[in-house]
Design brief:
The complex is a heterodimer of chains A (502) and B (517). By secondary structure, chain A is mainly alpha-helical. Chain A has 21 helices and two strands. Chain A has helices spanning 9-12, 18-36, 42-70, 84-100, 116-133, 138-157, 162-193, 198-207, 213-231, 239-246, 249-255, 258-275, 280-302, 307-328, 331-357, 379-382, 384-398, 404-418, 422-448, 466-480, 482-499; strands spanning 73-75, 80-82. In chain A, helix 4 runs antiparallel to helix 12 (258-275) and helix 11 runs antiparallel to helix 15. The radius of gyration of chain A is 22 Å and the shape is globular. The model of chain A has no long low-confidence stretch (mean pLDDT 88). With 517 residues, chain B is mainly alpha-helical. Chain B has a domain at 276-477. A two-stranded antiparallel ribbon of chain B has the order 1-2. In chain B, helix 4 packs antiparallel against helix 5 (128-137), helix 11 (240-265) runs antiparallel to helix 15 (322-353) and helix 11 packs parallel to helix 21 (469-489). The longest helix of chain B has 34 residues, at 154-187. The chains are: A mainly alpha (502), B mainly alpha (517). At the A-B interface, helix 18, helix 19 and helix 21 of A face strand 1, helix 5, helix 6 and helix 7 of B.
Chain lengths: 502, 517
């Protein structure tokens, strides 16, 4: 006879679940609305999602308040772990989602946005990412990861073009492989330590002084491969450009930010203790993969003929750049990771949105792909404002001061300097110089070439509506005036990262 | 207002540039000239209120930017930067005023105004990151000017210009971050303020590495041999106004930064690298002079001669004594005036004939006497004829380096004389002899608008050649402070010897400059 479990509600600490429950409930709400009255306009769903995310953001702010007062919060049988990393990454996830969702209100009708399921799936995905970052438990990480990924595959496929199906299937198969790697890696650690909690694993491994180093190696290699897929580290990156090309520009921009920050946080939790364990080969593996990811992605980006593919490779390179923070593993570098990613969100979402507003419904005959460089030739003559804003995002991505990403780059390189990675700092700096070339290439096309086809400039804002323009405006203002907020942001992030012990 | 005069000088053109978007296309030229004139008057006013007996920074402003990381907006001006700021304002003014018929003139003028912001910003910044900010930002307008208004190879030239400088500056940024980290280790506080860094004494091994990191950024900008290959392209393809600003102001950023950063921050490393850099500088002087002689294109001649003279500036800077550094700063101004004027003059003839090949010309002195006269004066200044502005700078630079090494100075001096050959040869090809080409027979002489730009430059060239005291005084005062700082900071015995203590030499220096001119 099993005695009934006696658990008090207080010990569950259900408040830790609130930020995840809000989007889930919101998603269900959207489905219910559709149930009662279908064929609603997409603007309804967009605004509902925006409101739900807004509520979620406020809930996060409350959680952040509790965290800064009482420190790390555990809940639900200590599965949930709300520390600074969880809160910061959820801020980025929800904030970037709020910037993304109004992009559905395009001028041209794209049919995925007419389905309420799109928005429901979107909110489920956010919940998945939130679970993924707010736990120490490898199983819950896995569940969150899969919830989010499965929803994302569907979102890509809903774009309903040949390339989108290809992209979705490619992403799905690669994601499945990554999931397999992740579960296998977790299994190895479970077998070694008898726990799926990362801090327990760390404690046990520490206690027996990494006796089974061979098995740890196997586990780490599998986990690294799985994160390699999720973060699109070279050589696991091959899906990225194709998937970005296949999905809508807005979603591609979203994918370059949100799934990655979630994966970064998990990688930070796992590799943090492994890096500091003094096992040299791990550092070597990470070092190599960081350098290779940064450099190779840059080199590939140089030869692209399509702006979206170029941006895909550039975001791989940026991910490699940021991965260096995990390798360096100091408080400054971990803060730099979040700092960089916040600034990157603005700039990168902005530049993908610029592609999104220039998206035509059908491909004209003279164009090879949706966003080939040729399309942007002579843009300054026909659409000067749009060209200037696009150039602004490119300069920011290249790391030109005083635009947003410069501060991120500077702080990141500085963390490499203070962490004792001088050579890495130089490699990072030189990679920024290489990257300068392909960002410049677009500027050269826009500002210095003659238009290939007379188009009167309407092509560049064919898809623009007020809401899209607002998002681009927010991104542009965030990019230009980042220096005003840099100080507060840095203090905020550093306090949160420091207080969670990273 | 005086408290904020530097900020006004920096941001007034940028603000005017933003407002310029509203101004009608037909009035934009007058708008540009008006704005640049106001800016120039402000710069002159700065000179007027500048106290030339003070060696330190004046009109300092400080606004917290990222205090947690030690980055603040700090600007200030001393004798070293004052005249380059005035020069920048001056050249933007006459550059806009002399602008010929150009397509998209509105974009051009707005770009020039933004460029002016970055130029003044670089020379006024006293925080390394703010300096870096303006330094990098200056690439963008120049990229656009070369890339949009340049010759057939303009895109290649502009991208090459951008990437070269960008790559170099990123290495410099790493150096700056290291410097700030060392400051943090020494004091427990982050700071990027240059004046804070001045107080930091680094071990020699650190100095060497950091010197190299900063050198990468500066040397590419100057550009020093062997990093000079971007410059002939940039000059060859750039429109006249681009070349003028590039040669007169942008290149000076590199040499100025050597004096602002490398020398006072790393005195031992400066002594250590003195000979290698001097050798590079002399190679630069001789090699580019020879290349210039081989050019068919008159603009390339001027471009290479400009590189050649930058070598003399570097040589003067790395004399590491008051005469040399004062001379090199004076030569920066002189070089700005003279090479800027030469590029303007080449632009004048290019506007008329749309070719820059010297073989296309000949006997122009008959057709365009006024043009030939002004060109002649500038050419004499360029080769360093006494009583012209260049002579003072070159003489002092060489005098300074003579104290370090007789032989190298002798080589450099000879090279400068050799430099006269190619300039005179070019002049002969273009202006003397009979008019061979039919097209050249009816060329119009310089018109009023062009004279408006050229006559002030001619006057300055001769006036400061005869009486350089107004500039040399304030420059000298500030340079003495820099040199004595270097002397105090230097660690090794050799450095102490190489960098003379100013107090001892003071009497020697002030007298000759006072009497000779």
């Amino acid at each position: 006879m099993v005695s009934p479990a006696n658990i008090s509600m207080e010990s569950l600490n259900l408040i830790t679940l609130v930020p995840m429950l809000i989007p889930i409930i919101g998603a269900l709400l959207i489905i219910i609305v559709d149930l009662f009255k279908s064929e609603q306009d997409r603007s309804l769903y967009v605004m509902l999602s925006l409101l739900i995310l807004g509520v979620d953001f406020v809930a996060l702010m409350d959680t952040a308040g509790v965290f800064s007062k009482n420190g790390t919060i555990m809940g639900v049988f200590d599965v949930m772990l709300i520390d600074g990393l969880a809160i910061l990454s959820q801020f980025i996830v929800v904030g970037a989602s709020m910037l993304f969702i109004p992009l559905a209100l395009t001028h041209k009708r794209f049919h995925e946005f007419t389905y309420p399921e799109f928005f429901a799936l979107f909110l489920f995905m956010i919940a998945g990412f939130q679970f993924m970052v707010a736990t120490d438990n490898l199983i819950l990480i896995f569940v969150g990861l899969e919830t989010a990924s499965l929803a994302l595959y569907t979102l890509i496929a809903m774009h309903n073009r040949d390339k989108s199906f290809e992209a979705a299937v490619k992403y799905f198969t690669m994601g499945a492989l990554a999931a397999g790697f992740f579960s296998f890696g977790s299994m190895v650690f479970y077998a070694l330590t008898g726990s799926v909690e990362i801090n327990q694993i760390a404690a046990v491994l520490e206690a027996n002084n990494y006796a089974d180093i061979g098995f740890v190696l196997v586990g780490v290699v599998f986990l690294l491969a799985s994160f390699g897929f999720k973060l699109s580290m070279v050589p696991f990156h091959t899906w990225t450009p194709d998937v970005y090309e296949g999905s809508s520009a807005a979603l591609a921009g979203y994918m370059s930010i949100v799934p990655k920050i979630a994966a970064f946080v998990v990688a930070m939790r796992i590799f943090e203790f492994l890096i500091h364990s003094g096992v040299v080969w791990l550092e070597v593996i990470l070092y190599a993969s960081v350098v290779i990811t940064m450099t190779m992605a840059n080199v590939w980006a140089l030869v692209q003929t399509d702006v979206k593919r170029m941006l895909a490779y550039s975001s791989i390179s940026h991910a490699g750049f940021v991965m260096a923070a995990i390798l360096i593993g100091t408080t400054q570098s971990n803060s730099a990771l979040f700092f960089y990613w916040v600034l990157f969100s603005f700039t990168n979402l902005g530049s993908f949105s610029m592609l999104w507003i220039s998206r035509q419904k059908n491909l004209p005959a003279h164009q090879q792909s949706d966003h080939s460089y040729n399309k942007f030739a002579g843009m300054i003559k026909t659409a000067p404002v749009a060209a200037t804003i696009m150039a602004l995002f490119m300069l920011s991505l290249a790391g030109l001061p005083p635009f947003a990403l410069f501060w991120g780059k500077m702080y990141m390189i500085s963390s490499a300097v203070t962490g004792g990675y001088t050579v890495l700092a130089l490699i990072m700096a030189l990679n920024s110089a290489i990257a300068g070339y392909y960002y410049l290439k677009l500027i050269v096309y826009m500002f210095m070439k003659e238009p290939i086809v007379e188009n009167g400039g309407h092509v560049y804002s064919a898809n623009a509506t007020l809401s899209l323009k607002t998002i681009i405006g927010i991104a542009a203002i965030g990019t230009i005036f980042a220096f005003v907020a840099v100080n507060q942001l840095l203090e905020f992030i550093t306090a949160f990262v420091y207080n969670s012990g990273y | 207002m005086l408290d904020h005069i530097l900020s006004i000088l920096i941001f007034f053109p940028a603000l005017a540039g933003v407002l310029g978007f509203v101004v009608n296309k037909n009035s934009i030229r007058s708008y540009g000239v008006a704005v640049a004139t106001i800016e120039f008057v402000l710069a002159l006013w700065l000179w007027f209120v500048f106290d030339s007996n003070v060696s330190g920074m004046q009109f300092m402003e400080q606004i917290a930017l990222i205090p947690t990381f030690g980055i603040n907006y700090i600007v200030g001006v001393d004798g070293i930067s004052l005249f380059i700021i005035i020069l920048a304002a001056f050249f933007t003014m006459i550059g806009i005023a002399s602008l010929g018929e150009t397509k998209d003139i509105k974009n051009m003028i707005i770009t020039l105004l933004f460029l002016q912001m970055t130029m003044v910003g670089v020379f006024a910044a006293l925080d390394a990151i703010v300096f870096y900010l303006f330094w990098e930002l200056s690439l963008v307008p120049m990229l656009y000017i070369i890339g949009a208004w340049g010759g057939p190879l303009r895109i290649y030239a502009s991208v090459k210009f951008f990437l070269y400088t960008f790559a170099g500056s990123l290495v410099m940024l790493v150096g700056m971050l290291f410097m700030a980290y060392f400051y943090y280790q020494a004091t427990g506080e982050w700071s990027f303020a240059i004046l804070d860094w001045y107080r930091l004494i680094l071990p020699e091994s650190f100095q060497l590495w950091l010197f190299v990191a900063f050198f990468m950024g500066f040397a590419i900008k100057v550009p020093m041999f062997p990093f000079h290959t971007w410059l002939p392209y940039a000059h060859g393809q750039a429109p006249t106004i681009g070349s003028v600003i590039l040669a007169a102001i942008l290149l000076k950023m590199g040499t100025y930064a050597f004096i602002r950063f490398s020398l006072p921050l790393f005195p031992d490393a400066s002594v250590y690298f003195m000979y290698p850099i001097a050798v590079l500088a002399i190679i630069m002087i001789i090699y580019t002079a020879m290349v210039a002689y081989a050019q068919k294109d008159v603009k390339q001649v001027v471009a290479y001669s400009s590189v050649s003279h930058m070598g003399v500036i570097i040589l003067g800077t790395f004399a590491l004594n008051v005469e040399g550094i004062t001379g090199s700063i004076f030569l920066m101004i002189a070089h700005g005036v003279v090479s800027g004027a030469l590029f303007l003059l080449v632009g004048v003839i290019y506007d008329r004939r749309h070719t820059k090949y010297m073989s296309e010309f000949g006997g122009l002195a008959h057709v365009m006497p006024r043009y030939a006269t002004i060109f002649g004066v500038m050419l004499m200044a360029s080769v360093g004829l006494p009583l012209t502005i260049n002579f003072v700078g070159e003489f002092l630079s060489l005098l300074g380096f003579y104290k370090q090494s007789h032989i190298l100075t002798l080589l450099a001096g000879t090279a400068i004389i050799v430099g006269a050959i190619y300039m005179l040869a070019a002049y002969k090809k273009m202006f003397f002899g009979v008019v061979t080409k039919e097209e050249n027979k009816h060329l119009k002489d310089v018109n009023k608008r062009e004279l408006l730009a050229l006559i002030p430059l001619t006057i300055i060239t001769i006036w400061l050649g005869i009486y350089p005291k107004p500039l040399l005084g304030p420059i000298n005062t500030s340079v003495e402070a820099v040199v004595s700082l270097m002397h105090e900071k230097s660690l090794s015995e050799e450095a102490k010897q190489r960098i003379p203590s100013v107090a001892k030499d003071m009497a020697l220096i002030t007298k000759p400059t006072g009497e000779a001119h």
